[in-house]
Design a protein that fits this description.
Domain tRNA nucleotidyltransferase/poly(A) polymerase RNA and SrmB- binding: 184-242
Shape: elongated
GO molecular function, one term: metal ion binding
Domain HD: 260-353
Strand order of the largest sheet: 3-4-5-2-1-8-9
Distance between the termini: 71 Å
Domain Poly A polymerase head: 27-156
Strand content: 5-15%
Keywords: ATP-binding, Magnesium, Metal-binding, Nucleotide-binding, Nucleotidyltransferase, RNA repair, RNA-binding, Transferase, tRNA processing
CATH architecture of the largest domain: Orthogonal Bundle
Radius of gyration: 30 Å
Length: 489
């Protein structure tokens, strides 16, 4: 068996092979490129290992390409990299062998053979190499039967898995990530080694752990990865709040669903609808507060009142804990968690336009993502019930579309700003300013006053008087000339 390279790849590899031959350095393609070519997955970069000086090889090889790519040399690590004009990334490393100290994942490195280099790889499917040497160009170098593992869909370590995972505990996360992305099975001995060595994950930085977790979340079926994280008990260490969702409790014959597996189903449902990482995080966290809000009510059963509000408050803490970004992405996830029950209330009869306007205003530009989350939250095995809910949500979409066309609420801002309130009453930024501003917004959304400047200004004066405030002369003049000043702003 030989890999069929594309014309672009073949030209590039021949040039690298010739450069290696000039320098007398055995050279091999290795790792993910080889794996993905065999599996028929897209490839955008290639790694090369040579027995000798990788920096010298990369520098000479780059001269064979036109235009000459800029070579990045990393002397401390013995690696080099350049990118071809068509975006194809090529990375070079000298063959090496590694040894680890137990307290660290940074290895002691020394030069080695290509087999030494394959031994240090994480899994057999990533240890596959293809010769670029003249005498056996295109032949596989496969000392650990990686080809067989690819055919059988197995994740297995080249050497003793306990040693592999103790040396670099991040490999436990990578094993699960590859199993999830490729839909492979983890070899039993390898699986049990992950469980035995799970506590070693604590020496890995949170940023590296979260990077692997996000790759699992972005896979086609993220639940595969989360189930493996749960079964190996890694999830108990890296994301204990999610573990608390697991299990169903029964009292007086009444039980609630297992919210861990419900969450995984919602996550898979969202994954079918969107590639948005943060929408997928909203799916993971939408019910995160159910354990904290769970109550059993006599004659009624289990309740989770306010879990969306409590969950929203948990989002910043979890993002901080997992070293996820605390800016717009966090605010987006928190908003969807807090709003995820609102659309279902709009499926009831006699819902007012003001309720629809409020949802549109609160969701803003994220309304469509909110609806995807709500539709994904239907996990019943009863197809009739699922279809009924989906039909109801379609009616919500239509109702919201009608109101949006009339009121343009999703991009709407109240006609009275905080600056106008402060100028009118001679205030500094303070609590009364926020109270009056919110009152004007609520009055317009609830249909109490028209959505125009004059009505909003008059209502502002009324609310100010209720707060014991008096408009100054400039405020009164502003009321008389309000529209002109508003347009000028």
């Amino acid at each position: 068996m030989k890999i069929q390279f594309t014309e672009r790849e073949e030209k590039a590899f021949r040039k690298i092979s010739e450069a290696a031959m000039q320098l007398g350095l055995p050279c091999y393609l290795i790792g993910g490129f080889v794996r993905d070519k065999i599996l028929g997955r897209p490839t955008k970069d290639a790694d090369f290992v040579c027995v000798g000086d990788a920096l010298e090889l990369a520098t000479l090889a780059a001269k064979a390409f036109k235009p000459h790519p800029k070579v990045s040399l990393y002397k401390n690590f013995g690696t080099a990299h350049f990118r071809l004009s068509d975006g194809f990334d090529l990375e070079f490393v000298g063959a090496r062998k590694e040894s680890y100290q137990r307290h660290s994942r940074k290895p002691d490195v020394e030069p080695g053979t290509v087999e030494d280099d394959q031994k240090r790889r994480d899994f057999t499917i990533n240890a596959l190499a293809v010769s670029l040497n003249k005498e056996d160009y295109g032949n596989f170098v496969d000392p650990f039967n990686g080809l067989d593992d690819l055919k059988q869909g197995l994740i297995r370590t080249p050497l003793d898995p306990d040693q592999t995972f103790s040396d670099d505990p991040l490999r436990m996360m990578r094993a699960i990530r590859f199993a999830c992305q490729l839909k492979f099975r983890i070899y039993p001995e390898t699986f049990h080694a992950i469980k035995r060595n799970k506590d070693r994950i604590k020496i890995i930085s949170q940023e590296r752990i979260t990077d692997e977790l996000n790759k699992i979340i972005l896979s086609e079926m993220p639940s595969i990865g989360f189930k493996l994280l749960y079964d190996t008990e890694l999830l108990h260490i890296i994301f204990p709040q999610m573990i608390e969702l697991a299990g169903a409790e029964f009292i007086e014959g009444k039980g609630h669903k297992d919210n861990f597996y419900h969450t995984l189903q919602v996550l898979d449902n969202v994954a079918e609808r969107s590639d948005n990482l943060w929408l997928r995080w909203a799916a993971i966290l939408h019910d995160i507060a159910k354990p904290a809000t769970k109550r059993f009510e006599e004659g009624h059963g289990w309740t989770f009142h306010g879990h969306e509000v409590v969950g929203g408050r948990m989002v910043p803490k979890i993002f901080n804990q997992l070293k996820l970004p605390l800016g717009e992405q966090m605010k987006y996830v928190r908003k969807l968690v807090e709003l995820h029950l609102r659309p279902i209330s709009l499926t009831k009869e006699n819902i007012t336009d003001s309720a629809v306007r409020r949802l549109l205003f609160d969701a803003g530009e994220d309304f469509d993502d909110l609806m995807k989350l709500c539709e994904s939250d239907i996990t019943s095995k009863n197809r009739y019930k699922v279809n009924r809910y989906l039909q109801n949500f379609e009616l919500v979409r239509e109702r919201c579309k009608e109101v949006e066309e009339n009121d343009k609420i999703r991009t709407w801002q109240p006609p009275i700003t905080g600056e106008i309130i402060m100028q009118t009453f001679g205030l500094r930024p303070s609590k009364p300013v926020g109270i009056i501003k919110d009152a004007i917004k609520d009055a317009i959304l609830d249909g109490q006053i028209p959505n125009n400047y004059e009505a909003a200004f008059a209502y502002m004066l009324q609310k100010g008087e209720e707060c014991g405030l008096r408009a100054n002369e400039s405020g009164v003049r502003r009321q008389e000339t309000g529209e002109a000043e508003t347009s000028a702003e």
